Here is the input.
Amino acid sequence: MDIHWAALGGVFGVSLGITLLTVVLFSLGVAALPRGDGAGHGVAHGGEHSRGAHRTATATAVLCFGACLAVAVYGLTLIIGG
Here is the structure.
């Protein structure tokens, strides 16, 4: 039995990279989630939080979570073979 170490290292490197990318994307999505319903974001909370910023934060969170879902689905298709 022979182990092809270069291939094993390559698989390990790609797996580690994709895992880190997915964790960072998920973390960015959680951080981008707007807090609450947008009411009460005035001067008492450190400044004005406009409706456009709320929409941008929501869109960023949705894109990050969508990318995480795409990575998970792609991984499942590789495992299942479909």
User: Anything to note?
Assistant: The CA atoms of residues 68 and 79 lie 17 Å apart.
